[in-house]
Specification:
Layout: E1 4-6, E2 19-23, H1 26-30, H2 41-50, E3 55-62, E4 65-77, E5 87-93, E6 104-106, H3 109-116, E7 122-128, E8 138-149, H4 155-161, H5 164-176, E9 181-185, H6 191-203, H7 213-218, E10 222-228, E11 231-241, E12 244-252, H8 258-275, E13 280-282, H9 288-293, E14 297-307, H10 310-318, H11 320-323, H12 337-348
Parallel strand pairs: 5-7, 12-13
Antiparallel strand pairs: 1-2, 2-3, 3-4, 4-5, 4-6, 7-14, 8-13, 8-14, 9-10, 10-11, 11-12
Helix pairs in contact: 5-8
């Protein structure tokens, strides 16, 4: 579908010169605006080919103010975090893959939200990093992401900085995984990679999108397979952008004890980040406790939700407590005191 320009009458009172470009062709949108990572045309088009939920792209502009966002249409249980079931047709503004980045880019979030409120039905904006108050829109917490700050010269320095109990746990995993073969995959992935991904997807309590097999063959990223005696045990998909390493996806073979394997995989990701001079690892939004025990820190993520039906919108607002993700994770003192002091001095300077 070619891009079209639409005037939204509800917006004229506030944004008189608002222009809306809406298309299911991402390439027709990017000609209008320069977008930062992760809105790379090759990546977004690959996601559209391999995420079966319908996707639309919006670019709105009012003089110097602009907003771009990706909208996916799906049926979703809105009470996933409360372990209740109420499936609704929802329009999700977010990245159509499992990374903790926002699915929008704007210099005027209020203008964007005002426009999103005019889109018919229920809309859910995911992975908001900093919220703004907006009348009629419900704000809540979603899954946090786990951020690892890397200022280590080598993996030995990292291990030496850990308190003994945490170092012992990782060392145990390293010993128990010493016979595992690590292979960096190039080009077409073996079928076992997608099988591992599907097994982890099916096990996840927070299913959102499911990518198709060709995505893993074509995505521009580092794909690392862990196997033993010819049996695939796990894999990780990593994406390096500037000085940040994104742990995008993983897959596990649950026929074996995966506790040590998962620690070992995270350890190898940290080693990879150190060797490739990545200052930040975004470890993603699940398995928080294990990642915190590796030295990561929680970074909160939020959502906006709105329904054009005023009665349903009020019900959603009153049900906010059931929509939010709640965690009760304890604080883990992973690093030795001198490392904590060093990090604090670095932040102050």
């Amino acid at each position: 579908m070619t891009a079209c320009i639409e005037g939204m009458w509800r917006m004229k009172k506030t944004y008189r010169d608002l222009q809306v470009q809406k298309s299911d062709d991402f390439n027709s949108i990017v000609s209008s605006v320069e977008l930062p990572f992760p809105f790379d045309a090759k990546f977004i088009n690959l996601l559209k080919e391999n995420n079966l939920f319908p996707q639309e792209y919006y670019y709105i502009r009012n003089n110097d103010d602009f907003a771009f966002f990706i909208l996916s249409k799906m049926k979703l249980n809105i009470f996933t975090f409360a372990k209740l079931k109420l499936s609704m047709k929802i329009k999700i503004i977010g990245m159509p893959c499992s990374i903790s980045e926002q699915g929008y880019y704007t210099n005027n979030e209020k203008m964007m939200l005002d426009y999103i409120k005019t889109i018919k039905g229920v809309k859910l904006v995911l992975n908001v990093q900093k919220t703004i108050p907006e009348q009629g829109i419900t704000v809540g917490k979603t899954l946090p992401t786990c951020i690892f700050v890397n200022d280590f010269k080598n993996i030995h320095e990292y291990m030496s900085s850990l308190r003994s109990s945490y170092r012992r746990r990782i060392s145990k995993a390293i010993v128990n995984c010493e016979n595992i073969v690590i292979q960096e995959l190039k080009g077409k992935c073996p079928k076992t990679v997608y099988d591992l991904y599907l097994r982890t997807y099916e096990k996840s309590p927070y299913k959102l999108e499911r990518l198709e097999a060709p995505f893993f063959d074509k995505v521009d990223s580092d794909k690392i397979l862990f196997s033993k005696d010819g049996v695939a045990l796990g894999f990780v998909l990593l994406k390096k952008h500037k000085e940040t390493l994104y742990f995008m996806l993983c897959g596990m073979n649950y026929d074996v004890d995966v506790a040590d394997l998962y620690y070992y995989m995270l350890y190898k990701i940290i080693e990879y980040a150190i060797e490739n001079k990545c200052k930040i690892i975004d470890f993603g939004q699940t398995s928080e406790e294990t990642k915190l025990k590796m030295g990561a820190q929680l970074q909160e993520r939020y959502f906006y939700v709105h329904h054009t039906n005023e009665i349903l919108n009020k019900i959603i607002n009153k049900s906010k407590n059931l929509l939010e993700y709640k965690h009760n994770l304890q604080k883990f003192d992973v690093y030795k005191e001198e490392k904590i002091l060093e990090q604090n001095e670095s932040i102050i300077s």
